[in-house]
Amino acid sequence: MKTLLIRNARIRDDQDLQDIWMEEGVIRKIGSGLSAGADREIDCKGRVVLPGLVEGHIHPDKAFLEERKPNVSGTLEEAIKNTGELKAEYTYEDVYARSEKVLKWAIAKGTTVMRAHPDVDHIEKLMGVEVLLELKEVYKDKIDLQIVVFPQEGILKSEGTLERMEEGILMGADVVGGCPYNEKTLEDSIRHLELVFDLAKKHELPLDLHVDFADHTEDPRYLLTDRICDLTIERGMQGRVTLGHVTTLGSLDLEEASLLFAKIAHAGITIMPLPATDVYLNGRNDEKNVRRGMAPVRQMLEHGVNVAFASNNIRNAFTPFGNANLLLIGYLLAETQFMGSAEQQRAVLDMITYNAAKCLGIEETYGIAEGKKADLVVFDSLKLSDVIQDQPIANYVIKAGRVIVEQSMNRTVE
Ligand SMILES: [Zn+2]
User: Fold this and answer.
1) Ligand 1 midpoint to CA 108 (Å)
2) Largest CA distance in the chain
3) How far is the CA of 90 from the centre of ligand 1 (A)?
4) 182 CA to middle of ligand 1, Å?
5) What is the spatial order of strands in the sheet that 111-116 belongs to?
6) What's domain 3-51+367-406's superfamily in CATH?
7) Edge-to-edge strand list for the sheet holding 18-23
8) Counting beta carbons within 10 angstroms of the beta carbon of residue 191, is it exposed (0 to 12), middle (13 to 18) or buried (19 or more)?
9) What is the model's pLDDT at position 1?
10) Spatial distance between the Cα atoms of 390 and 411, rounded to a whole number of angstroms
11) How far apart are the CA of 25 and the centre of ligand 1, in A?
């Protein structure tokens, strides 16, 4: 019976330090000065302990492609085009190596759960899904992986994609993806939505869509959130739908947006900004007062919307940056969304822990409480409200009650 005890953990900023005793991968006891013995004991010395971070939206299969074909114009169109050309040259080993690197980087940064969106289309076919299914098994003791069948090239535009998505589900994928803006007409975008809702319903799976990724409201293919709220309620999918990007919402006027935010909350939809990509691709053509190009996070939180955020891309044509480090993305979000108070900085941490866990449907076993899974990360910070600005390393990453990453930094300043 394997046991682990961590002492003097900062779990909340308004509470004394706590000890956490874990046995067989589960948190059994939390309290001050626990007397229980353990196979291993770690003294956190007041450092912050969070539940393992949740990377709710990432594309390991197309990570590290930036150097092969940089995005010169910096537009979404060129990103899709360049990546489409590179996909034609993929080999299984190449996709495996790049995806594995993303997983390793993420784990070292404190991520214990990940939802990956491999492309499924007429070019990559099911290679990304196959690679991630293998990695899911190989890395099962280190990270929980959910796999989305993601039609990056559209469904009506890319022959055989719907059938391949269903095949991916039968192989073991966990979530139905979508990308309705990448169709030729509004009618096709709407048909795309209906097809993915039908597929999710048929296989009783959640839906996770890339939608409304624009910095203006002129193209109706990028203004589908309202319709998706209606579909979610009509199909009884409340609490099981996630929308990534949704940057168009930042271009709506406040009154119009306010009604929509209330509707999103009512439909139980999670909004997943992808700041590194959103900020990099949007606002490109502004010559002054450049738009930030992100969904309005604070306003949605105020309306009770479940908001998480994620890395999305690591060093490719969509985003030439990325370390699979959610704290870095959190800093970008906090800065650009004016979330600077201690309370707001803690809310940013909630978005990559509890809110993202809710999005992934794992909230029942997730968190720091007796009976929850022993997936924890010890950060080299002394207050939760400092984590985003400290950008600390993860001293310990604990998965199922076992230390899987251990790292420290020695610093001398004369
Ligand atoms: Zn994405």
Assistant:
1) 22
2) 66
3) 19
4) 13
5) 53-58, 111-116, 144-149, 175-178, 207-211, 241-245, 270-272, 306-307
6) Urease, subunit C, domain 1 (2.30.40.10)
7) 26-31, 18-23, 3-9, 40-43
8) middle
9) 63
10) 15
11) 31
Counting every residue written for the chain, the total comes to 414
For 257-286, what is each residue's pLDDT tens digit? 999 999 999 999 999 999 999 999 999 889
Domain residue ranges of the chain, discontinuous segments joined by + = 3-51+367-406, 53-365
Residues of the chain falling short of pLDDT 50: none
Q: How far is the CA of 185 from the centre of ligand 1 (A)?
A: 21
215 Cα–ligand 1 center, Å: 16
Domain 53-365, classified CATH 3.20.20.105, yes or no: no
What is the predicted pLDDT for the residue at 59?
98
Q: How many A from CA of 245 to the centre of ligand 1?
A: 8
pLDDT recorded at residue 67? 85
Tokens for 364, please give them. Answer: 């029942």
**Residue 390: both structure tokens together:** 């400290």
What separation in Å is there between the alpha carbon of 151 and the centre of ligand 1?
11
Q: Give the separation between CA 116 and CA 130, rounded to whole angstroms.
A: 12
| Torsion sign over Cα 111, 112, 115, 118 | positive
